[in-house]
Amino acid sequence: MSTPVPSTTPAEEEGEAVRARVRSCIAESGLAQREFARRIELDETKLSKALKGTRRFTPAELVRIATVGGVTVNWLLSGSESAAGPAVAPPAAILPHREQETPGQGRRRRTIVETAWGLFASRGLHAVKISEIATEAGVSTAAVYHYFSGKRELFEETLRYSVKLAFDRQVASLHLISGPRERLEHLIGLQMPARRAGVQEFAIWLQAWSEVAVGEGSQQNQADAYQRWYRTVHDVLREGQEVGVFVDEPLEDLATQLTSLVDGLGIKVLVRTLSSEEMGRQVSRFLDRITVPRP
After folding, report:
1. Cβ–Cβ < 8 Å for 147, 112
2. Burial of residue 168 (number of CB atoms within 10 Å: 0-12, 13-18, 19+)
3. Cβ density class 25-37: b for 16+ within 10 Å, e for less
4. Per residue in 103-135, pLDDT tens?
5. What is the pLDDT of residues 230-261, one digit of tens each?
6. CA distance 75 to 66
7. How far apart are CA 10 and CA 222, in angstroms?
8. What kind of architecture, by CATH, is found in domain 58-290?
9. Is 150 helix (H, G, I), strand (E, B) or coil?
10. Domain residue ranges in the chain
11. What's the distance, CA 235 to chain centroid?
12. Could you tell me which residues come within 8 angstroms of residue 177 by beta carbon, excluding any fewer than 6 positions away?
């Protein structure tokens, strides 16, 4: 009598599909697995175990894999660019541009963008020179101009990079949080300028707003990028209203009030007139006011 083959559960099949996409990502990066592990700041042994299914990738690891591999966490988890979870998927136009190029060319493009992102965030768009970006990225100035026509185009790409980082973080972890209030708190926490990366990302947003205000930046890019964040907040609020967690007030009003509060407080944190801890307390008080008391 033949021994029946154990069937796999949907969760096991989903886990193997994620591992297969990570393997594909590593292969298409053109990097050896050891070097890929180093770039995602993960011990090679842990990466091997995750690829074999003996440990799970953490949300933070998935974000770093997507960043190094030039894909989205949404694709790693679902194989699609259409988000089915609580995070609203950005249109392709506001994600980093993907060109038909070799793995080496793609890595060089991403390195230039990530380097520029860090320099623009810490020193400001107008204070940074293309030659400084090139030196920091380990490429020639000509190489930067090969990929980007100038600093303005490169800055717009760093805004797209910021959109991708936010989307990746949300897709990686929002679905793990149960309860609309808890999910909304987690969502806001992901966007707060608390840690260094959060401060840098917020600094890019602030400069993008400033550039649009004086007629220099792309209003369409900024508007599309912001709308994605707004819709994610809106949808989590709607989910909470549907189950009676949040007060029955116009959704557009609540979403506008909350996103405006986060924006304004974030700017205060950035210019050091408010601590990130106090920002968190102020947001929590607002959420208390819109949360229906439990009987």
Report:
1. yes
2. buried
3. bbeebebeeeebb
4. 899 999 999 999 999 999 999 999 999 999 999
5. 999 999 999 999 999 999 999 999 999 999 99
6. 9
7. 39
8. Orthogonal Bundle (1.10)
9. coil
10. 58-290
11. 18
12. 183, 186
